[in-house]
Amino acid sequence: MADTYGLIGAFYSKPSPPLPPFFLKTPKLPLHFPSKSMAAHCHCSSNPRPSQPSLLVFSGGTAFNGVVEELKKLTVRVAHVLPVSDDGGSTAEIVRVLGGPAVGDIRSRCLRLADESTSEALAVRRLLGHRLPINPQQAKSEWYKILEGEHSLWEGVSKPYRETIRAFLAYFQNEILRRPNESFCFSNGSIGNFFFAGARIFFQSLDAAIFLFSRVSDIPAESLVLPVISTNDRLTLGCELWDGTIIRGQNEISHPTNAIGSVDKGRSSVPALPSRIKRVFYMSSEGTNSLHEVFPTVNQAVLDQLSNVDCIVYAMGSLFTSLCPSLVLLGIGEIISSRSCPKVLLLNGSHDRETSGFSASSFVTAITDALNRTYGNSHNCLRNLPSQYINTLLVPKDGEIPIDIQSLSSQGIFDVIIVNSIHDPKVGTIFDPVSLINALGNVVSRYMRTKD
C-alpha cells in the first residue's frame, strides 16, 4: 500500500489541490477548476459544430442509456440533465457513509458518452464501468487489488491515466478510513462511483468532479453532463400519494428492496403503490413528512442550456423518480414554456410501479403538473397549458401505454409519431434505437428548416 498512501499523502501535503498528471499531459485543457457552472463554460468554448442540432435531454441514468450511442450519430451537442437523488445500490452506500449527492446516474451517463476509439479508451471505460462482486469479502479483496494497481483491469491503461485514477480512488479510500464508526460495504460497488465520489470530495465540487471524469473518459467537449442541482449536500427525494401517504427515498418510491446490491430497474415483482403519485419533492435529511420539504436551487448551467437548445427532450424511464425531480425545480417550467422549439416526450413502452394504469395523456398531465408545480407551494405555482411544455409525442410501436388521441388533442398535442420498437425480455417493449433517433432527427430538422 506504500504507493497508495504516497498518493494520499501528496494530496494532504498541499493546501490547494495538486494538478493530476493527466492534465500535465494535455496542455490544451484549462489548467484550473472554476466553480459552479464550470462544466458548461469549459465545454461550450471548444469548437462548436453549428451544423449539428443542440438538444437538452431530461432523463435518469438507465433507460435513455440504450440510445446514447445512436444519438451521437445525430449530434454530440447534447446537454444530459440528470437528477442527483438516487439512493439505491452502490450509490446508497457511498451516500450513507460519505454523504453528498448521488453520483450513480451521472457516472452511468458519462461512461455511455466515453470515447471508445482506442484500446486505452476502452481499457479506461472497462475499469470505470467495473462492478465488484456481490459477496462482501470477495468485493473488498478485489477492491484492494484495484487500489494497489495489481488488478488485470489496469492492463492497457497508461501511466498518466493510471496515476490520476488511482489518486482519486486512494482519496476515496482514505475518506472511508477517516470514518471508523461507519463500516463501508464494497458489495457490488462501482469503481466509477468510487472515483467520482473521491474527486467530488477532494475538489468539494460536483462540477469539478464531472469535468475531471469527462476528461479522463474523453467525453466529446460539446456533450454536457449536468446535475440538475449542483450541490455537495445529500438530497432526499420524497413523494406524496393521492391518499396522503408520504414515501421517503427515490428507491423506496420506485424499486423498494431490502437487500444491499444491485437494484432491478426492470419489470419486477415489487408491490404496487397504495395510491397514485400526486407529486414529488425534496426533503431534508431529518424528518419523515412533507413539513420537512426543502427547495434546492436549480443548476444555472441547466437554465442556460434550456434557453438556447434547438430541442428539449423528456426521455423514457421512471416518470416520477427520473424526470420529475428535474422538472419541479423553480425556473425550469418558466423557461420551457417560453420556448418555441420542439418539446418531445419519449413515451415508455410499458407500465411500471410509478405509472400503473396510465395512458399517454396521463404522462403529459404528470409532466405538466411537475413543471407547473401545481401541488407545491401555491406562491410558486404556474398555470401553463400542457402544449406549452410538450408538442410532440414519440411512441414505441405495440407498447403497453394506451394512446388516447382524443385526450391528447384536448391537451393541445397533435403530433404523435409511432416509432419502431423491439422487445426486451427484462423491461418489455422499448424503442428501436435507430428508429427513435431517426424520428427525433426528423422532428428537429423540421424545426431547423422553419427556423432558417
From TrEMBL:
Domain of life according to the entry: Eukaryota
Lineage of origin: Eukaryota, Viridiplantae, Streptophyta, Embryophyta, Tracheophyta
Organism field: Gossypium stocksii
Entry's Gene Ontology molecular function annotations: LPPG:FO 2-phospho-L-lactate transferase activity
InterPro entries: CofD (IPR002882), CofD-like_dom_sf (IPR038136)
Protein name: Gluconeogenesis factor
CDD domains: YvcK_like (cd07187)
